[in-house]
Backbone:
């Protein structure tokens, strides 16, 4: 393989991502592939308004990560950010439950203002990502509001960030009538559908399947586009040894009676995926998916690139036996 | 005079104020009078939207000053504030010409959100001032948008902050048809009119007469309420030795062909005022106003209280000869 043409077989790689885990793997891909061959489609089901600001947590996490400006301790937010605004909010009697750094506020102010002017979220994201020097294509799944709701035993339906951040995903999911509600009538953007139709490789990043990937898959035409494709689609497990690397994936799967393991992830995605990447600590099981077992925990930036490279090599070998 | 009842003759003191100079004198009054006897009416002609935020520079300067949280170097903004948000704005390609501290943004976010919910600016200001522990009554002159426009030789009409901050008040005012345009149909609030009607002492703080005090005076019913009153109305000169302590007062008066002096200030206010407070460096002139000459430069917090005390003593003596 020529150094200048890494993984030249894959001309159009599309990754679906949520927050921190997805962002890290997407960044790994960006470090292995020429920018023009990578599109990252990001969940916006967790977007919400706070202090009147239009906040897109997953989109920002992916953007800051790809831009090399993310806070490496949290995974989200900006490196070197401060919390003076939130401190003043507390002085005004607000409980300031949602972490908004001072630099971070600039992102939300520009987004809010541009959306109010009628600019699409896709174009807002393009402008912000471009200013941060991001060359891969970063696409919100939709330009429509697409608020995911969580159905809890304790409190019924909760807005996503109320469940996820304010109550630190402690409420229990309730399976009936549905544990997670994705709003109807949300349209994938034409850019998203176009990217999927022209993809020659689709990757479900190590994000929460229910909270981060399903909001994308459940958009009309998206699941069909992936199901009917003739190109490989693989997932990277967000679970290692039955534990989520970050967030409530394991807790939610247990609450829904699913097998809490990498195998459970493969079963959950079912026929949508051709293969799954799991950690070496996890057992290969009897499921018929092709499986790559490797170290999937991304501690460092180098880990991201190493994992992405291994995944691309494995897919290349599997596709060219 | 009993210590517990300072200046007991004045049960309802109303001060009209603009930005830094007015804020300092209003703070001096707040240090001399029981809070329930002081109302400060603040110019909102310099209010504007920036990054979608509803910003009230004069109101915030007075509020931060009375709250004891103002930046003492600038006179405006919050003590110990930082500029991370603006730094990020620059990274996004914005020129960040208007100073907005990170803590300061909290004020604007809450104001913007509450205004959008239909809360009046008067009530927004009450909530914010109350949280900062301010006990004197702080009133915006109006709940209506009241944007002052500046008519310049070089560029015609300019929005106030475009002239004042972005172009650092360098353009030259043009007298015809009018150097400064105050919008019609802006209503003083009922709280403002009520305070003026019940005032037993009215003070025009050392603010720019054209840019800060006139927007208040030019509201329908305000000038009449002050003209027809039977209570003392005095002004403190914003000029010392023919120079503005801060801002463009002297430059504007020169451009308009007015006498650039404390005497010129007295002439400008004309019959509206009964007396004027000038600096000892300035000459008492032949104008018929009662005049107090003292050190009117407020360098320290103690200066504010000392000047306010001297002014109140002088008015008390003048009213009780």
Residues:
């Amino acid at each position: 393989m020529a150094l200048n043409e890494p993984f030249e077989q894959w001309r159009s790689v599309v990754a679906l991502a949520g927050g921190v885990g997805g962002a890290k793997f997407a960044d790994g891909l960006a470090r292995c592939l020429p920018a023009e061959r990578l599109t990252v489609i990001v969940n916006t089901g967790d977007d919400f308004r706070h202090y009147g600001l239009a906040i897109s947590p997953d989109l920002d996490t992916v953007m800051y990560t790809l831009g090399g400006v993310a806070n490496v301790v949290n995974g989200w937010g900006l490196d070197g950010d401060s919390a003076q605004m939130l401190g003043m909010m507390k002085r005004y009697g607000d409980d300031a439950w949602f972490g908004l750094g001072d630099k971070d506020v600039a992102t939300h102010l520009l987004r809010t203002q541009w959306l109010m002017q009628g600019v699409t979220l896709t174009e807002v994201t393009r402008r912000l990502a471009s200013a941060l020097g991001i060359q891969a294509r970063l696409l919100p799944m939709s330009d429509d509001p697409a608020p995911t709701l969580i159905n809890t035993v304790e409190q019924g339906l909760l807005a996503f960030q109320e469940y996820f951040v304010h109550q630190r995903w402690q409420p229990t999911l309730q399976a009936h009538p549905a544990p997670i509600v994705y709003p109807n009538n949300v349209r994938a953007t034409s850019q998203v559908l176009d990217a999927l139709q022209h993809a020659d490789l689709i990757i479900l990043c190590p994000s929460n399947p229910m909270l981060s990937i399903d909001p994308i898959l459940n958009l009309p035409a998206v699941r069909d586009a992936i199901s009917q494709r003739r190109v490989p689609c693989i997932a990277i497990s967000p679970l290692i040894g039955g534990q989520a690397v970050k967030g409530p994936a394991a807790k939610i799967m247990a609450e829904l009676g699913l097998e809490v393991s990498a195998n459970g992830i493969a079963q959950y995605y079912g026929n949508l995926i051709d293969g799954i990447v799991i950690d070496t600590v996890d057992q290969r099981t009897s499921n018929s998916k092709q499986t790559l077992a490797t170290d999937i925990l991304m501690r460092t930036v180098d880990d991201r690139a190493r994992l992405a490279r291994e995944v691309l090599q494995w897919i290349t070998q599997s596709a060219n036996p």
